[in-house]
Design goal:
alpha/beta; Nucleotidyltransferase, domain 5; five-stranded mixed sheet; 12 strands; 38% helix; 22% strand
Length: 390
């Protein structure tokens, strides 16, 4: 497989928004700095409400039904295998034409040590969706459980975008930030120098997670604030905004990670109590949450890039479609060039699925020792559990 001129790899991504499974069929040519990636087909397949309900029964909960968690692991694997098979049939492509399947799985809990505070346990993260079920269910060799190698090497298991971002999107002479706004927002800073040791990849805080949680609570049947319309009709509450931003996470140095375990609806409730803003309107709450996401992203960007006038920022993830959020970001980062990732030829909704296909390609093809030496702190390319379809 490694000796072929190109490989057909399907990347799968399901994020903390729990909206569905992204399926990207990619053609990968070469490896390492010579990697070329093309998205051949892409589908974002929404989860049915039953699936969301089952995942939420264990999602980001400190206490959960252990039997349910055990049952969900293979169940999600079979569900994802069925989605892949349906996509292949729809695209008119045979499973035998696919070299690899790269599955992120469904994160159900993220626990960096600084959050749980129990030093003897260290960092931990948990994704479900058994790769063996995917391999057997599709007949395709599957790489899964990607985040555990990063944990074993002393990292927090996230973000994992940095390696693929470095290979595909860096440009000599141009400072770039690849900003992904999913449930949690994260970015990769790619310096104009192209020196790997100067690359930074970090979470910034909430992306859509608090906005989505509030919408689900206040507007039954809605999963998100479409285009940021509700937020656009409200006014920011300064007291609530300051209370939301008053958390030690935002003062931690890079890199750092977080999740809905911290930024959940209870976080909003507490901030409302502290700021005496419980009675504000739904529109004003959404406007404030939207600014909260934009402010914390912009603050993190400015902590890394002191002069945004020379910065090129490329957006991906669900937040790309929130016009109010993008407008707020533009106001917070005056002079920066802010574009959709499609300007680099990549569907912004497909980016994360593509990056897992890149990791699978590197796992099969690259000289892992050389890459780990060239990109300090990123021993990612030989990670992942390999499952064979027999």
């Amino acid at each position: 497989m490694a000796g072929k001129p190109s490989r057909m790899i399907i990347g799968l991504m399901s994020g903390t928004s729990l909206d569905g499974l992204d399926v990207a069929l990619c053609r990968l040519e070469g490896h390492g700095p010579g990697t070329k990636a093309y998205i051949i087909q892409f589908e974002s397949v929404p989860y049915e409400e039953e699936v969301r309900k089952e995942i939420r029964s264990v999602f980001s909960k400190r206490e959960a039904d252990l039997e349910k968690l055990c049952l969900l692991h293979p169940w999600i694997g079979r569900l994802h295998a069925g989605i892949v098979n349906d996509c292949l049939q729809h695209w008119g492509i045979r499973a035998t034409d696919i070299d690899l399947l790269a599955s992120h799985g469904q994160t159900v809990y993220h626990a960096p040590e600084r959050s749980h505070g129990r030093q003897k346990f260290g960092n931990a993260t948990l994704q479900i969706g058994d790769g063996d079920q995917l391999a057997v269910g599709t007949g395709i060799i599957t790489l899964s459980d990607f985040r555990q190698k990063h944990i074993a090497a002393g990292g927090e298991g996230a973000p994992l975008a940095v390696y693929g971002d470095h290979l595909l999107f860096g440009k000599k002479g141009e400072d770039r930030i690849l900003l992904n706004i999913g449930g949690i927002a994260n970015f990769t800073y790619l310096p104009a120098s192209r020196i790997p040791g100067e690359i930074i990849s970090t979470d910034t805080g909430p992306g859509n997670t608090l906005m989505d949680a509030f919408i689900r609570q206040q507007v039954p049947g809605s999963l998100f604030d479409k285009d940021g319309n509700l937020a656009s009709r409200g006014r920011v509450n300064p007291g609530l905004l300051e209370a939301l931003k008053d958390h030690p996470f935002f003062k931690l140095p890079f890199p750092k990670t977080t999740g809905p375990e911290l930024f959940h609806i209870g976080y909003l409730d507490q901030a409302m109590q502290e700021s005496h803003s419980e009675g504000i309107s739904t529109e004003d709450t959404m406007a404030t949450l939207n600014h909260f996401t934009a402010d914390t992203i912009a603050g993190a960007v400015l902590a890394q890039v002191k002069e945004p006038a020379n910065l090129h920022l490329f957006l991906s993830g669900g937040g790309v479609h929130n016009r109010t959020l993008v407008k707020n970001l533009e106001e917070q980062l005056p002079g920066a060039s802010i574009e959709n990732l499609s300007s680099l030829g990549i569907d912004p909704d497909a980016k994360e699925a593509l990056l897992f296909a890149v990791l699978a390609n590197e796992c099969i093809c690259s000289d892992h020792k050389a890459i780990e030496k060239n990109i300090p702190g990123m021993p990612l390319v030989n990670m992942g559990k390999i499952s064979f379809p027999f």
